[in-house]
């Protein structure tokens, strides 16, 4: 059934192009069950010359969609999280927010963890909206633009690489971004001391 749904949406996207991809990415950030990467890759395969553009479209749609997820969480609260997500998932997300603050969004933005859990949780746990947007833009941009670059420059070989290695590549991107963040914090502290 899920495969049929993906095929139907992909056929629809072939007709509507970038706007449809934007809508899918927007919805996935708060309630849609299928990651937009699937559709980004499918459209990029058909139009490899637009792969970078599609990466940008998915990034913008996903970041703007996180605003909807944030307000869903803010208005519906913790009961919504418990209704739609497993208790263990909600507890893990809460731990990540308590430990890392808004930077937890960065981790979710690039890894296979369902991003919508974090956007909704950001509203529930009262993360600043600006922080959600900032870390979403960095994380989602890194994730989707990586795919765009791989497909644009390497074509089918790039797609094969993404399919075979996306989990560990996502984790590697997350680690690099967290290291950059830690360096930023250290430099900022040193400047405030001097």
Notable features of this structure?
mainly alpha, 10 helices, globular, 194 residues
Instruction: Specify the biggest β-sheet.
Output: none
Uncertain residue segments: none
Structural class: mainly alpha
Give the quaternary arrangement of the chains: single chain
Helical content, roughly? Answer: over 70%
Q: Tell me the radius of gyration.
A: 17 Å
Mean pLDDT: 87
Give the strand tally.
0
In terms of DSSP E residues, the strand content is under 5%
Helix and strand pattern: HHHHHHHHHH
Principal-axis shape: globular
Task: Count the DSSP helices.
Answer: 10
* End-to-end gap: 61 Å
List the helices and strands and how they pair.
Elements: H1 2-16, H2 18-28, H3 37-46, H4 51-76, H5 78-84, H6 87-100, H7 103-110, H8 115-124, H9 129-154, H10 156-193
How does this model look, in words?
With 194 residues, the chain is mostly helical. The chain is built from 10 helices and no strands. It is globular, with a radius of gyration of 17 Å.
What is the structure about, briefly put?
Helices cover 85% and strands 0% of the residues. By secondary structure, it is mostly helical. It has helices at residues 2-16, 18-28, 37-46, 51-76, 78-84, 87-100, 103-110, 115-124, 129-154, 156-193.
């Amino acid at each position: 059934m899920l495969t049929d749904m993906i095929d139907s949406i992909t056929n629809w996207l072939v007709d509507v192009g970038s706007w449809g991809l934007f809508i899918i990415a927007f919805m996935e950030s708060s309630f849609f069950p299928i990651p937009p990467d699937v559709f980004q890759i499918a459209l990029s395969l058909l139009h490899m010359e637009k792969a970078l553009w599609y990466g940008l479209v998915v990034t913008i749609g996903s970041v703007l969609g996180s605003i909807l997820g944030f307000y869903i969480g803010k208005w519906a609260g913790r009961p919504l999280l418990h209704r739609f997500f497993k208790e263990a998932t909600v507890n893990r997300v809460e731990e990540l927010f308590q430990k890392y603050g808004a930077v937890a969004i960065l981790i979710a933005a690039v890894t296979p963890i369902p991003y919508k859990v974090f956007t909704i949780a950001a509203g529930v746990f009262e993360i600043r909206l600006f922080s959600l947007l900032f870390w979403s833009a960095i994380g989602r941009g890194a994730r989707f633009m990586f795919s765009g670059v791989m497909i644009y420059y390497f074509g089918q070989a790039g797609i094969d690489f993404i399919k075979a290695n996306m989990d560990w590549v996502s984790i590697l991107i997350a680690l690099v971004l967290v290291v950059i963040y830690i360096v930023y914090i250290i430099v900022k502290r040193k400047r405030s001391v001097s």
